[in-house]
């Protein structure tokens, strides 16, 4: 096998949205992302700390969908490495010229074995890093894109694909026989990509990093003030997995966005993998709160390299939500508390 | 009618608990209250800022219950005023000598018209205020008792009783025909007492004030670390009513304790009453999250002046939880978001 | 002596500023106060939680000055009580009709014995309380006016005047022979008015309350981003006195504004007075940092009832800053640390 | 030249302290580091998130000093690479067997060209990561060692040495002719090592990362409560360089420790270097506060590979503190504010 490309990190997602104005309100006025560029068909957004052109593209379309997950590679030569590597895997790849996406240099696109449209690029337009423009901070004060989370039927297969690509596995949810979810990273955080078991390929969520828990609380307060609290799907809370303080929002098209804080350093090669038992109610919420069903069931459609919706494959193994109901120690524990 | 006594504030609650050691762990090691005094049968606890002897008594007993809600009055003469006032209302009153409760001077006890054992006192032993002993802070860093919340069938009657006693009504939950809940204060905060509609008399919760939201998050993290997350019943979240950031815990006997922050100033005589429509999903949680059913249904037994459990009266008017199911705009709003 | 008027709280200050546009930038865009009303000559501002018309008036004038410190009284009849009380003290008083200050009803003005123009009013126009309009929050998210702090040569005399008016003394700075500063309250916080020893009458500062320490940090970050860090005079830090987390700013005219958080409950009549030794370096900054000299030396001119600058009386007793230099244990303690 | 070793990150410092019990109090009870191991002569400490054996060794000795700065390398083979690389530079190197420092495998020690005793290791004993043991959190809740900061006369020479070793330069302080300070990183943060201009080799400080600004404030509050505020040398405040929220402490021997939060991601190879003008008063404190002189002047003695104190070389170029006095816009700006 050829050497895999040297991926730096999750760098950008492109979402298809049906009402660009409504999405602009949600991502810029409410979340607080900065507009790097905009035209009639698309918005290019970034966090306060990002000096690369954008980390989110919102493109106008008929049906909400994920168009692409983009990663940055270390050198221009990693594009050749990528073509060779994915070609050897028999995956469909395409080389697209600089500017195919505004601000992004030449890139390699591939439909990964899980069915996700993946893009690798190195060259990117630099824009001002706004970290110390506190006068421009608002919303959740998003610093940067943190990670992608995708739904896929076969977690073990996904784990293998990303491990071969050089991702380290930081955490899992599992039991004696089944892998329910896995978190994998190239950069020195808990993840660049997480795999959630379910019918796929679907996009579960993208996540932006914010410096402190207070930012998450403030965002929820603002949504309540505006009567837009229905955008809050789950949380705020503390994750067991990753230890992050989080909230999950649904954008105007139903795309799920996580706001994510704290995390921990995972950059040493022997960083231990933390394996959560699927029966530990703290794995998804460290405070033991039940996860709302929509969070397990709903996810965004994914497009192929030609922009057509991908067909779903069902999960063959047990679903986490089904295993947890009944097995969950939460209710039992709480009952015993009282008598 | 005689002039009512001049009540300063909610000052102390006495709870009957079945396992004093387990309760000590919960209230001191976990919540972080300070032990002023302890003997084989009782613990006397206070918050970091309290220089009056205690704000919570935990007394060993056979069955969990509320023994007493105590208020401080402005002068010793207010005890006479209390006897005259409650006597004129035909309520059973008792004068108990100093030291009947450790640290508390002479007091007047009365069974209020809602069936709650109420106590008024002025004299109290001073103890060190620990506000600036940050080296002793732990748990949720509780500053002081903030308020009581009681379940009673007839909110309008309760509202009348407390208003006559000089409490100002800061907020309500209501609709065109029904009062579901009311918040009333003597001190300059949102409440010293809240009335929640339901079978009563029962104690819904007592609440301690902590300076910042971060304290609430940290407490939940600690409970998760210890595998004691079942003590977290609801939240953390932002209240619509009161605007406070909150979490509800259940103690080892199932007594509910709220940790409460921020609040607002209500001390002017024309402070406006904020009336929440029962159909506004933000009234109980400003972020629109559903309230867990146990929070509406469960509450602590209340003792009479002789220590016998009070019989319950059912609520004749509609229950908030029943009105909200269906009428709640939450699901509708979220659905509309997606298609 | 007649009974003093029943003062509720410090309610509003009127400052003379030389450049209304620059002041508007400072108080609304930077601090985040809300504009209730504005005309060519004045701005009427309030905090997010205030439903009374304003807590700060900025009036255009030739020279920066304090025009007035206003307190709210419990009833309209307290205006008559005020006239009688201050008249009996031989102080010059004036009754001014409703609307003399926009939004404020009939009022009594008096030149207090310390030389400060004091105003008492009851009636006031109600405006929307914006506590839960988090979408409008910005700057330091000021909730409400908290207190005034004035410089006056004779602290004992000032203490007597305010105590006679029914203020409780919460804290002092003193030594065996001298009172250097005192904090006195009508509402249930540490103070409505603080007295700082020095040539007077001068206004040391006015203070706004914000819910959490993070708000103070954010404000400083914004000032740094804009290159306006010179507005930050002292702090952020923790006070010994009051235990508040604070920062002191200087507005475009040099008027000092404190942003103030946390505080503690002082509403019981026997609330203990906390007496700080002037030699305890933690009294002004609990972390032991030296106070910048400008903070001790500089303060705003005060106008009399006719709008003429008041002449200054020097302090006869020792100045805190002089006593502290040398006596301060700080350097010594730090040296001994390294020996 | 041979290929340099692949350094992962700053991993551990060894400090000589004169009173191990007093140091234990400071680093464990006050700061909140965890004791991995202890014997009569040394303490091995780590942050809550660290699964490698320790990040700080305190070793009993006659005179306070820095004994060693240790970095972790990616593979065991990097030790050979290190020997070859440093040997080719003509630097004295030593290979020490596993266990020379408790918990650390075989290592290479070298006296770097700036005169600092540097150590590289790969193998290390794993210990429990305590990230989610919130019940054990106290003090400043330190997550992990973040960086070293050293004083050295020739910043350009230091910059060259570390750049050749593969460090990226994230920020500098400079003017047209002089480099005053530089920040360089291997991991994806602002720095693993910072160079401060001054007589050297001396250790300026070591820094621990804590998740949120509130942790820093709490630590200062605790130090004030204990009357130990003299340990607080500078801050809390916001850095211009690095954007971190910080405080500098002095340990019982005068060793300087920084507590450090937030930071930003620097892991892309084209991460821009942020160059601060030495005349920008916000470079060291974003809020414009003057830096206390001790912070510029004082630093810890450094030992050579045989444990003997290194002689100091004076700085030939201008000192930042001298350039800043007078050139600093702060006083001017503040004066102009008041005209």
UniProtKB/TrEMBL annotation, chains A, B, C, D:
One of its GO terms (molecular function) is 3,4-dihydroxyphenylacetate 2,3-dioxygenase activity. Its EC number is 1.13.11.15. It is an enzyme of class 1 (oxidoreductase). Keywords: Aromatic hydrocarbons catabolism, Dioxygenase, Iron, Metal-binding, Oxidoreductase, Repeat. Pfam families: Diox-like_N, Glyoxalase. InterPro entries: DHPA_dOase_Mn/Fe, Glyas_Bleomycin-R_OHBP_Dase, Glyas_Fos-R_dOase_dom, GlyoxalaseI/FosfomycinResist, HPCD_C_sf, VOC_core, Xdiol_ring_cleave_dOase_1/2, XylE-like_N. Its cofactor is Fe(2+). Residues 9-123, 144-262 form the VOC domain. Belongs to the extradiol ring-cleavage dioxygenase family. NCBIfam families: HpaD. Homotetramer. This is 3,4-dihydroxyphenylacetate 2,3-dioxygenase. The gene is hpaD.
């Amino acid at each position: 096998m050829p050497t895999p490309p040297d991926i730096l990190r999750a760098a950008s997602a492109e979402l298809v949205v049906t009402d660009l104005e409504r999405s602009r309100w949600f991502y810029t006025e409410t979340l607080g992302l900065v507009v790097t560029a905009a035209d009639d068909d698309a918005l290019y957004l970034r966090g306060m700390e990002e000096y690369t052109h954008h980390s989110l593209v919102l493109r106008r379309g008929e049906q909400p969908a994920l168009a692409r997950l983009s990663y940055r590679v270390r050198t221009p030569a990693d594009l050749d490495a990528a073509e060779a590597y994915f070609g050897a895997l028999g995956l469909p790849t395409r080389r697209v010229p600089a500017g195919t996406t505004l601000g992004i240099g030449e890139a390699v696109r591939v439909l990964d074995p899980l069915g996700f449209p993946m893009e690798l690029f190195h060259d990117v337009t630099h824009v001002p890093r706004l970290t110390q423009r506190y006068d421009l901070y608002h919303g959740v004060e998003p610093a940067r894109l943190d990670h992608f989370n995708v739904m896929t039927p076969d977690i073990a297969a996904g784990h293998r694909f990303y491990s071969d690509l050089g991702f380290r596995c930081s955490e899992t949810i599992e039991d004696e026989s089944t892998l329910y979810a896995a978190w994998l990273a190239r950069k020195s955080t808990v993840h660049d990509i997480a795999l959630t078991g379910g019918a796929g390929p679907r996009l579960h969520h993208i996540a932006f990093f914010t410096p402190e828990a207070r930012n998450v609380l403030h965002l929820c307060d603002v949504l309540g003030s505006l009567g837009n609290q229905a955008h809050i799907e789950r949380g705020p809370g503390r994750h067991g997995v990753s230890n992050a303080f989080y909230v999950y929002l649904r954008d105007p098209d139903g795309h799920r966005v996580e706001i994510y804080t704290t995390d921990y350093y995972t950059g040493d090669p022997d960083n231990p993998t933390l394996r959560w038992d699927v029966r530990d109610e703290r794995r998804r919420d460290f405070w033991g709160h039940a996860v709302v069903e929509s969070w397990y069931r709903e996810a965004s459609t994914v497009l192929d390299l030609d922009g057509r919706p991908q067909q779903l494959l069902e999960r063959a193994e047990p679903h986490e939500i089904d295993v947890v109901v009944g097995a969950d120690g939460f209710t039992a524990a709480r009952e015993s508390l009282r008598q």
